[in-house]
């Protein structure tokens, strides 16, 4: 096999981006051989814009069963991610799944179990892991030279979205169609990075404000407090209505502080371990010496193209993925815990009661209102 034959299931905003990247030759070891979408308008677009050799389907399950693909990229509404992934795995197809892995961890856990039993490559579209800034943050924090984490604060409110965005799809921003708001649509990247860099917390308390700034059912403004097993704490704040927004990740460790903002990392490096200094310093107001260093990265940031290159490489040569598909459950566990905490009005320990989460989600799905989408497909360039 020289190229991986890919079927794209879902050709909305992101599916269209992936198709164009592959057709433009940006992923040399991959070709599009099939595409599927339930919307007549998107299938018409595909017939007019894709090569004649690309087979067009209405249903993803029919594409999966067609035999014209080696792998599939799933870019449909969130509830269908595990369902279609499992179907593809059972047909022996490799799977690249768009974020989030699903809407609730119980469903994703089943998907992961099927993946582990299958002889297939399973990846998650966590394209922010290709960003040189976050790769370097991961290296610095997990490398151990800065000691253990004491505190993490991430305010990420640069996910600005208009009402038009939410009105574009009948499934968007509804409990029944999408299963959540900013936590489940925009922030899977940040929540994945948070656990990838800092590890999983043991307890979460969150306030999730539904439709605070937009005419939607789901949350568009969230503040969460995190506790870690080692005593570290954290705050995670996100919103889709702040203009201009902020994206500042600050991690305090025993040997200093990392600040990630404006596409650069600054290290405030202490001369000695703060925990030791605190216990041995003679003066009550003594402060450990500190030097400020701007961290240099390799500058590489391939985003979605890098994820797809690694996916093809894993299939063809066994080289590593950017993100294993089974890791998708971690960030989802964080968003599920934030939702559950907000619904119950109390702190939630991880792992949480998955059946209770489903029960609470079910209440909201039952009251979810149907809406008509405008069908608009937006240019996503520069939005991630």
Features:
single chain, 384 residues, alpha/beta, nine-stranded mixed beta sheet, six-stranded parallel beta sheet, 12 helices
Protein model, in words:
Helix content is 34%, strand content 23%. It is built from twelve helices and 15 strands. Strands 14-13-12-11-7-10-9-8-15 form a nine-stranded mixed beta sheet. Helix 4 runs parallel beside helix 5 and helix 5 runs antiparallel to helix 11.
Can you describe this structure in just a few lines?
The chain is of the alpha/beta class. The chain has helices at 13-23, 40-49, 60-65, 80-90, 105-117, 132-142, 163-167, 188-198, 274-280, 303-317, 328-344, 354-366, and strands at 4-9, 30-36, 55-57, 71-74, 94-97, 122-124, 149-156, 203-210, 219-227, 233-239, 247-253, 256-261, 264-270, 290-295, 348-349. Helix 4 (80-90) packs parallel to helix 5.
Layout of secondary structure:
Layout: E1 4-9, H1 13-23, E2 30-36, H2 40-49, E3 55-57, H3 60-65, E4 71-74, H4 80-90, E5 94-97, H5 105-117, E6 122-124, H6 132-142, E7 149-156, H7 163-167, H8 188-198, E8 203-210, E9 219-227, E10 233-239, E11 247-253, E12 256-261, E13 264-270, H9 274-280, E14 290-295, H10 303-317, H11 328-344, E15 348-349, H12 354-366
Parallel strand pairs: 1-2, 1-4, 2-3, 4-5, 5-6, 7-10
Antiparallel strand pairs: 7-11, 8-9, 8-15, 9-10, 11-12, 12-13, 13-14
Helix pairs in contact: 4-5, 5-11, 6-8, 8-11
**On the 0-100 scale, what is the average pLDDT?**
96
Rg from Cα:
22 Å
Strand order of the largest sheet: 14-13-12-11-7-10-9-8-15
Order of helices and strands: EHEHEHEHEHEHEHHEEEEEEHEHHEH
Helix count from the secondary structure assignment = 12
Assign a percent range to the helix content: 25-40%
- Structural classification: alpha/beta
> How many beta-strand runs?
15
Molecular shape: globular
Biggest sheet features? 9 strands, mixed
* Stretches with pLDDT under 50, minimum 5 residues: none
Beginning-to-end CA distance, first to last residue: 32 Å
Strand content: 15-25%
């Amino acid at each position: 096999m020289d190229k991986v034959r890919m079927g794209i299931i879902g050709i909305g905003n992101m599916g269209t981006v992936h198709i164009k990247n592959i057709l433009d030759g940006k992923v040399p070891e991959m070709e599009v051989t099939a595409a599927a979408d339930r919307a007549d308008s998107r299938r018409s677009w595909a017939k007019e814009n894709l090569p004649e050799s690309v087979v067009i389907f209405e249903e993803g399950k029919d594409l999966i069963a067609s035999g014209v693909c080696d792998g599939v990229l799933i870019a449909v509404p969130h509830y269908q991610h595990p369902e279609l992934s499992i179907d593809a795995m059972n047909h022996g197809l490799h799977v690249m799944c768009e974020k989030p892995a699903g809407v609730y961890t119980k469903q994703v856990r089943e998907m992961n179990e099927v993946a582990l039993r299958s002889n297939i490559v399973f990846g998650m579209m966590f394209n922010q892991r290709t960003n040189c800034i976050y790769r370097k943050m991961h290296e610095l924090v997990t490398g151990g030279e800065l000691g253990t984490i004491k505190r993490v604060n991430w305010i990420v409110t640069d996910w600005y979205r208009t009402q038009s965005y939410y009105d574009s799809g009948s499934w968007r921003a509804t409990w029944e169609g999408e299963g959540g708001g900013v936590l489940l649509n925009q922030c899977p990247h940040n929540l994945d990075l948070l656990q990838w860099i800092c590890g999983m917390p043991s307890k979460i308390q969150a306030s999730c404000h539904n439709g605070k700034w937009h005419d939607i059912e789901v949350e568009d403004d969230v503040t969460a407090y995190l506790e870690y097993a080692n005593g570290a704490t954290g705050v995670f704040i996100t919103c889709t209505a702040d203009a201009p927004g902020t994206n500042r990740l600050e991690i305090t460790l025993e040997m200093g502080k990392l600040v990630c903002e404006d596409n650069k990392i600054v290290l405030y490096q202490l001369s000695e371990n703060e925990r030791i200094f605190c216990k041995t310093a003679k003066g009550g107001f003594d402060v450990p010496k500190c030097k400020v260093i701007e961290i240099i990265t390799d500058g590489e940031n391939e985003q979605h193209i890098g994820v797809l290159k690694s996916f093809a490489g894993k299939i063809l040569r066994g080289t590593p993925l950017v993100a294993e598909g089974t890791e998708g459950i971690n960030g989802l566990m964080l968003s599920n815990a934030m939702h559950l905490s907000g619904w119950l009005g109390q702190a939630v320990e991880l792992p949480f009661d998955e059946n209770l989460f489903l029960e609470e989600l079910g209440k909201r799905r039952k009251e979810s209102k149907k809406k008509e989408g405008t069908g608009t497909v937006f240019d996503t360039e520069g939005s991630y």
